[in-house]
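Hi F.,

I've been meaning to write this up properly since the lab meeting, where we talked about keeping a consistent format for the predictions we share between groups. The idea is simple: the sequence comes first, exactly as it goes in, then the structure tokens exactly as they come out, then a line or two of notes. No screenshots and no reformatting. I'm using this chain as the first example so we have something concrete to point to.
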Amino acid sequence: MDKKCEIVQDLLFGYKDNTLHNESQKLVEEHLKTCENCNKIFQELKEEENNISSEKKEIDYLKKVRKKINKKNKLLIIIGIILTIVVIFNICIFSYYYKQAGKLQVFLEDDITQEQMGEIESKILEIDKNANIKYYTKEDSLNEMKTKIENKELLSGYDSGNNIFPSYYIIETNIKDAKKIEENIINLQGVKKTQGAFNLNPYLFIISECLGK
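Output, unedited:
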């Protein structure tokens, strides 16, 4: 290798990056026109740079793809979590609804007789022999209302002699039998009206339960 080739090869990196002074730039250009060996080395340098640039672009592309995949996976995970919460929430609501909404409240006339009460209870047990029947007197109703209202003075004038609140049954059964019981006792003597939670939408039932508590 002659001295000039050695000098030019030392300058090839600067020439490739276009950082040489004008005279050095011209020296390299003129030499590459006539020196096949130095020109070959220069072409190899450019090819190597192109390969590095291509690899960098490929790496950058893969990083972008991976980033998009990660974002998509995170979004899918979030959606999955939300759907799971919604499903569990609805399972809890409907489980509670079917467990609690089988309650039927039967309000009784003030002049109801023991015989009429017996007929009502018999009709209930005909439909569901395992139904839980609880009887609440007029006094129980009055006391219950006194515990619910904030202004106690509103009911201070009421006692057993002028009690306006009716006696009632609370029947605990399943929703299907509760509906059937209501249909069979609504027109019996001594029954004033009925009130069943099963007539409510499950979500409205939960809301009413929360507000009631």
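Notes:
The two ends are 99 Å apart (CA to CA).
The mean pLDDT is 81.

If this format works for you, I'll send the rest the same way.

G.
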